Amino acid sequence: MAERLVAKQAPDFTLETANGDGVDFGKVSLSDYKGKWLVLFFYPLDFTFVCPTEITALSENYDEFKKLNTEVLGVSVDSIHSHRAWINTPKDSNGLGKLNFPLGADITKKAARDYGVLIEEEGVALRGLFIISPEGELKYQVVNHNDVGRSVEETFRVLEALQSGGLCPMNWKKGDKHLVAK
After folding, report:
1. What is the helix (H) or strand (E) element at residue 56, kind and residue range?
2. Closest by Cα among 48, 13, 25, 32 to 102
3. DSSP, res 74
4. Would you say residue 145 has pLDDT above 60?
5. Which of 14, 3, 1 has its CA nearest to residue 138?
6. Name one GO biological process term (predicted).
7. Under 8 Å CB-to-CB from 121, ≥6 apart: which residues?
8. Which of 37, 41, 123, 160 is least buried, going by the fewest C-beta atoms within 10 A?
9. Which CATH class is domain 10-148?
10. Dihedrals φ, ψ of 80, to 5°?
């Protein structure tokens, strides 16, 4: 049975990372993002076809995330060495090129399992995207089939709605009015 994650404390994690520079390795935990918003996204595997379209789009928009006090972290079940190789592979060869955020290695699949995106029989994650508040509360999740990429525009829309602090109707965009509870 699926467990609800939204409106609860986000599952903790500690992951080794390949930094977006393609050179250094690191380590991150959920607590490293305290005081900032976090867009945490899972993708199935390195060196696939839909994944680089999402990862590079998020990286290209990283400065806009920073303006919203938001960090970005990508995670798959691949190793930090595979992540680094993919970052160092040119885009025209199905690589990523340099990124503005790290990629986490979930070799044990614990994070994917804890966030409810692991396809157990395949050992890979679904495309799951989570927005976590500065206090560590999971505010938003979207999980979809691995054949379909996610929308950076929709991620920004939801992030700005969550940060607005009001009741936001369908298709709310920054600058729109909030609903008033009666």
Report:
1. helix 51-60
2. 25
3. E
4. yes
5. 3
6. cellular response to stress
7. none
8. 123
9. alpha beta
10. -60, -30
The residues near 139 (Cβ < 8 Å, ≥ 6 apart) are 6, 7, 131, 132, 133, 162
Distance of CA 127 to the CA centre of its chain: 9
Characterise 42 by phi-psi region: left (phi > 0), alpha (psi -120 to 50), beta (else): beta
- Taking only the tens place, the pLDDT of each residue in 16-60 is 999 999 999 999 999 999 999 999 999 999 999 899 999 999 999
Question: 161 pairs with which residues across the strands?
Answer: none
- The radius of gyration of the chain from alpha carbons, rounded to an integer in Å, stands at 16
The arithmetic mean of pLDDT across residues 75-101, rounded, is 95
Q: Give the C-alpha separation, 167 to 7, whole Å.
A: 15
Task: Give yes or no: 168 in active site.
Answer: no
Active-site choice (18, 30, 51, 58): 51
Residue 44's alpha-carbon distances to 33, 145, 162, in angstroms, are 23, 10, 27
Boundaries of every domain in the chain: 10-148
CB burial readout 48-57, b (16+ within 10 A) else e? eeebbebbbe
